[in-house]
Specification:
- This protein folds into two domains: 247 residues, MetI-like (MetI-like fold, Orthogonal Bundle); 173 residues, MetI-like fold, CATH 1.10.3720.
- Helices cover 76% and strands 1% of the residues.
- Strands 1-2 form a two-stranded parallel sheet.
- α7 packs antiparallel against α25.
- The longest helix has 41 residues.
- It is globular and about 80 Å long.
- The chain starts with a helix and ends with a helix.
């Protein structure tokens, strides 16, 4: 028996080596893509190690302890809040029947359409002393000024946890709800026959089974929390990301920024390790063939009202209130701001995002098709390496990208001067090429996950039929696979497009001089305490963000297995 297994493994290795030899261009392409994806990380480490040795002790004694503690507390609060909201909402809409459940199933996804920094800007204006909430309080209770009563300050660590928790909870909701939908009724039946109440079945059976999904969702939410720069800066919370930005731009200390960014990488690696460990130690399998649908427990009276409040309040806080403020502010500023400058900003954002989505999808197709053709472990490893950018915050990528591109610019300029006597200037760092590189590296995991999920649904028999008809792998990809992958390719392009429209940290640090996008326009006016002037641009970003939300809402109505595959493609496997 052992010989048979070893022989099978040997035949598999021989087959994989043969595949690698027969598809050298695909392997070389995968290797080049992986190298470009990890180049910023290596450059970041080199910059950090090459800086002034006296900087690191200074950072350890002054900056890092404070900002690391603040970042840790922020992530702890956001993790707890997103877990509570996401799990509660997923369980209620999956297992219970109450008025408005069908509407809330997809409305709970709406906060994904609004960037965190936009929600932070809106709530500072809504909860300000001259905002509508405190104005209403003074009118009702007869207070003369804000000094006559106590009101919580949104510009605190607690305010940041509040804002980010109610924006990022859909990551947990999506993954946990997909797991709840895949659970068999048999498991819950057994728990009920053993005397468990509905609450006991939830806490002792359903929730432990969903623990891996909770870990994945919380990890994604925390990575988005770590990536944020606009919200934490506006709310006055000094995090690692904000420290990287201020050290680079305000102090001009690139080496110091790189050293702080390396600390962020350690945090990211810990999150990835935690996510992997959570899934490895909590694996469950269905042993029964009886996969009945989950029941709908009818809720009436105060229970129905409670379920409606639990599911409806996150939608109101995370989407409805900020959207209403943006609509009101945009209506007031429409005649002044809806003009040539707005169209220039929109054209910049759309053009940049379209370019990034096209490059990311093309790159994802190369990676996914190379993995399918060869089936070799080295290629599979390269695809994982190439997808690591999603876990790296935008500020870290920006620091790592700047130096390699600047060195390449200098090399091209030197060659041009020596050959033709003409200076080419900053071809890469002085243009949008650096932004396209950053967007593609950061969101490649999104496009790759979606394309890979679509390619897995294409039977290998089609590949063999195409080859038997004389098609080369490239021809088979062009004539057979691409038409079949059209929905997955379109979905991947839309997801990358919208993520690029919302991306702020990398855009601020890498944009060319006098180049503005919708995101940087909103950020600029918010930093000057003039949020209303950026309302139309912010509303445009929100409207663009509704596209993937609509796709995910449609996915949630598909059969459970198909929905799970689509969600897995939309949320990358980090």
């Amino acid at each position: 028996m052992q010989r048979a297994v070893n022989g099978g493994d040997g035949q598999g290795e021989v087959r994989h080596r043969s595949a690698l030899r027969h598809h050298p261009f695909m392997v070389a392409g995968s290797l080049a893509i992986a190298a470009l994806a990890v180049a910023p990380i290596f450059a970041l480490v080199v910059i950090a190690l090459g800086g002034d040795p006296s900087i690191w002790p200074h950072l350890l004694s002054t900056v890092l302890p404070r900002v690391t503690l603040t970042t840790g507390l922020l992530m702890l609060g956001v993790g707890l809040l997103t877990s509570i909201i996401g799990i509660a909402g997923a369980w209620l809409v999956s297992m219970c029947r109450f008025p408005g459940r069908g509407l809330l199933e997809w409305m709970l996804l709406l906060p994904l359409a609004v960037p965190t920094y936009v929600v932070a800007y809106c709530y500072v204006e809504i909860l300000d002393s001259v905002g509508p909430v405190q104005t209403f309080i003074r009118a009702v209770f007869g207070f003369q000024s804000a000094r006559d009563y106590w009101f919580p300050d949104i510009r605190t660590l607690g305010g940041a946890v509040f804002v980010m928790g109610f924006v990022l909870y859909p990551y947990v909701y999506l993954t946990v709800r997909a797991t709840f939908l895949m659970q068999s009724m048999c498991v819950l039946d057994v728990s009920r026959t053993l005397g468990k109440t509905a609450y006991g079945a939830f806490f002792q059976v359903a929730l432990p089974l969903a623990r891996p999904a909770v870990v994945v969702g919380v990890t994604l939410a925390l990575m988005e929390c770590l990536n944020d720069i606009g919200a934490v800066q506006f709310l006055g919370v000094q995090t690692l990301t904000l420290s990287v930005y201020s050290t680079w731009t305000n102090r001009g200390d690139l080496a110091g920024a790189a050293q702080i960014a390396c600390v962020m990488l350690i945090v990211v690696l810990f999150l990835v390790w935690l996510e992997r460990r959570g899934r490895r130690l909590q694996r469950f399998h269905q042993t029964s063939r009886r996969m009945q649908a989950l029941p709908d427990y009818p809720l009436k009276g105060w229970r129905a009202a409670g379920a409606l409040a639990v599911c409806g309040l996150p939608v109101l806080i995370g989407f409805v209130f900020p959207a209403l403020y943006l609509l009101h502010a945009a209506a007031r500023r429409f005649s002044a701001d809806f003009g040539p400058s707005y169209f220039t900003l929109t054209a910049n954002s759309v053009g940049l995002s379209l370019t990034a989505s096209a490059v990311a999808v093309a790159t994802a197709l190369v990676l996914a098709y190379a993995a399918r053709l060869t089936g070799a472990r080295p290629v599979q490893l390269l695809t994982r390496i190439a997808s690591v950018g999603y876990a790296v915050p935008g500020t870290v990528l920006a620091v790592g990208i700047l130096i390699p591109l600047a060195a390449l610019d200098n090399m091209i300029d030197g060659l041009a001067r020596s050959l033709v006597g003409i200076s080419t200037g900053l071809l890469l760092t002085g243009s949008t090429a650096a932004l396209v590189y950053a967007y593609t590296t950061r969101f490649l995991a999104v496009s790759f996950g979606t394309v890979e999920a679509g390619l897995e649904r294409v039977t290998p028999n089609i590949d063999m039929a195409a080859r038997s008809l004389g098609r080369t792998p490239a021809a088979a990809m062009r004539e057979v696979h691409l038409p079949l992958l059209r929905p997955a390719v379109v979905t991947a392009a839309l997801l990358v497009f919208v993520d690029s429209m919302k991306e702020l940290p990398a855009t601020i640090l890498l944009r060319p001089f006098n180049f503005e996008t919708l995101a940087t326009h909103v950020y600029t006016y918010a930093s000057m305490e003039m949020v209303e002037q950026g309302a139309i641009a912010a509303l445009t970003i929100v409207l663009a963000g509704l596209v993937p939300v609509a796709l995910l809402a449609r996915t949630s109505r598909l059969p459970q297995r198909v929905a799970n595959q689509a969600v897995r493609g939309a949320i990358p496997n980090i």
